[in-house]
Amino acid sequence: MESKRPANEGLFEQMGALLGGFNSLSNILDIGKVKPPIEQKKVSYKESMTYMKQFAGKNILLTGASGTIGANIARKLMKSEVGHLVMFVRRDDMMDSKTKMRLQNTPNAHVEEIDFREPQRIEQKFTYCMKKHFQGKLDAVILCHGVVTELGVQNCSVPDYDQLMLVNVRSNVHLISLAFPFLKQSKTSAITLLTSTSGGE
Ligand SMILES: NC(=O)c1ccc[n+]([C@@H]2O[C@H](COP(=O)([O-])OP(=O)(O)OC[C@H]3O[C@@H](n4cnc5c(N)ncnc54)[C@H](OP(=O)(O)O)[C@@H]3O)[C@@H](O)[C@H]2O)c1
């Protein structure tokens, strides 16, 4: 039997016809106006700062500096003559004594308190650090904060879940989006994200 649909009718038109009431789904989606993707310059990760380990003179934002991984990175960076290092911690009294000692001898390293369960403070804190410590120049963001919970989905309440997502997911997206315009201006920028294992169950 001959099809009633014109031969050149595309998938979107067919979907539109199925939905009914719409002349063409492509009109609704405004597909004709979608621009081709902007050509991106491909940069190999091997050219990135973290791969080359060229931290000297670089301005770096590090989160979770009171944690196991974060504190180790913080001490290594303080030894490697970074430009400015800003360490985000939830509470600075939680930082270990070795990191605190090195901090005393590293005037270009700064500690800033922030609790990622309060997302409304992130932009304000970031902007403050960009002006006060980094003078508008940022080369790398190393995100090492996170909470690991043993609670599986059956024992995790919705408010608990929201808090977990604020810390482990939303704060990372927010910080990266704030940092991105500055990182684009740096020749060897890098984003390192240690995602939490929470939520794996
Ligand atoms: N260790 C591993 O083998 C491993 C493997 C894979 C992935 N990871 C992930 O890597 C990240 C770091 O691991 P880690 O072993 O260093 O963890 P950790 O020792 O538990 O450190 C977590 C860090 O996140 C900070 N943090 C937690 N809640 C926060 C909040 N609401 N606001 C601001 N900071 C907050 C902690 O601050 P406080 O000290 O103030 O609590 C601490 O500095 C985690 O996301 C972890 O899940 C770790």
Description of the structure:
The structure is a single chain. With 201 residues, the chain is of the alpha/beta class. The chain folds into two domains: 8-36, no CATH class; 45-193, NAD(P)-binding Rossmann-like Domain (Rossmann fold), CATH 3.40.50. Helix content is 38%, strand content 12%. The chain contains seven helices and five strands. Helix 5 (97-104) links the parallel strand 2 (84-89) and strand 3 (109-113). Helix 4 packs parallel to helix 5. The longest helix has 27 residues, at 158-184. The termini are far apart. The relative contact order is 0.13.
**Percentage of β-strand residues:** 5-15%
Helix/strand order, N-terminal first: HHHEHEHEHEHE
User: Helix- and strand-based class?
Assistant: alpha/beta
CATH architecture of the largest domain: 3-Layer(aba) Sandwich
CATH structural class of the largest domain: Alpha Beta
Ligand catalogue: NADP nicotinamide-adenine-dinucleotide phosphate
Physical arrangement of strands within the biggest beta sheet: 3-2-1-4-5
Alpha carbon gyration radius:
23 Å
CATH superfamily of the largest domain: NAD(P)-binding Rossmann-like Domain
Number of helices: 7
Low-pLDDT stretches: 5-9, 11-32
